[in-house]
Design brief:
By secondary structure, the chain is α/β, with parallel strands linked by helices. The chain has a single domain, classed as TIM Barrel, CATH 3.20.20.70. It has nine helices and eleven strands.
């Protein structure tokens, strides 16, 4: 057993490795961690590179993968890439859910029955509230995409990112996602983190290393403490949570991260409920 596998088995180190497939996006959300948008530089991990990282992660003893961006489905053949990742380790792919029509919806059928879940952002049951943060017609496109994916056998999770809101709206949102075919167990709720564009818009709660799960995160720029660490503000990459610029072999940043978490009190990273 590797040191990493032992640390994961003992709960010292989270088992998931995150991959930033890209930074560009078709949306410009008000609280985006990476200031993503259509005009952002296309810093990407290729499909082959993501598969290399996944294989090394499995060999080291990590137990799961996550793919985020940007909007991953702007990458060519992302559905096929996710299916191949899921054949290595259980995988969750984060997406805004607005691109699943036509060719992309048909391509997503490869995920049916795979060990891959798509985590789609939906922040409110009120279309106006949701779209104020995420963009025009976002709500309508998402609530059309979710049942279309579910009907095709794709596992869908809902992620709600919001500042403190009223309980009545949350209740309506839960009723909505159940009606779309997503159970409560696949609904993730988390606060806005004050990094990236959220700093500019004055949103969110402050979060540092001690508040964030130590989930090894690989990007085109290096390896980070957390997917909430590989962020961008004012067009500049944040490096306060950068582990190493070296990402290959994966054991280099993995052992760096392990050295930082050893001796950390259990549960120290759960105060913001962003697992």
């Amino acid at each position: 057993m590797t040191a990493i596998a032992g640390a994961v088995a003992d709960g010292v180190l989270p088992g998931r490795v995150w991959l930033y497939s890209n930074y560009h996006c078709n949306l410009v959300c008000t609280y985006c961690l990476t200031e993503s948008g259509p005009k952002v530089d296309r810093r990407e991990l290729s499909a082959d590179r993501m598969l290399e990282v996944a294989q090394q992660a499995a060999e080291l003893g990590f137990t799961a993968l996550g793919v985020t961006g940007g909007e991953p489905f702007l990458q060519p053949d992302m559905a096929e890439t996710l299916a191949r990742l899921g054949a290595i380790l259980p995988t969750v792919g984060l997406t805004n859910g607005t691109l699943f029509t036509g060719r992309r919806l048909a391509a997503a059928e490869v995920l049916a029955g795979s060990d891959v879940a798509l985590q789609i952002s939906l922040d409110s049951a009120d279309p106006d509230v949701n779209d104020e943060a995420r963009g025009p017609d976002n709500f309508a496109r998402v609530v059309a995409a979710i049942p279309a994916l579910v009907e095709r056998g794709v596992t869908v999770r809902i992620a709600t990112t919001r500042e403190l809101g009223d309980e009545a709206d949350m209740s309506r949102l839960c009723e909505l996602h159940r009606g779309l075919g997503v159970p409560d167990s696949d609904h993730v709720m988390r606060p806005v983190i004050s990094r990236g564009r959220a700093v500019t818009t004055g949103m969110g709660v402050a979060a540092g290393m001690n508040d964030l799960p130590a989930e090894l995160t690989i990007t085109a720029d290096g390896a980070f403490w957390s997917p909430f660490g590989a962020t961008v503000h004012g067009g500049r990459l944040d490096t306060d949570l950068l582990l190493t610029r070296t990402t290959d072999p994966l054991r280099v940043p993995a052992l760096t991260l392990l050295g930082l978490v050893e001796g950390r009190p259990a549960g120290a990273d759960s105060t913001l409920n962003i697992r």
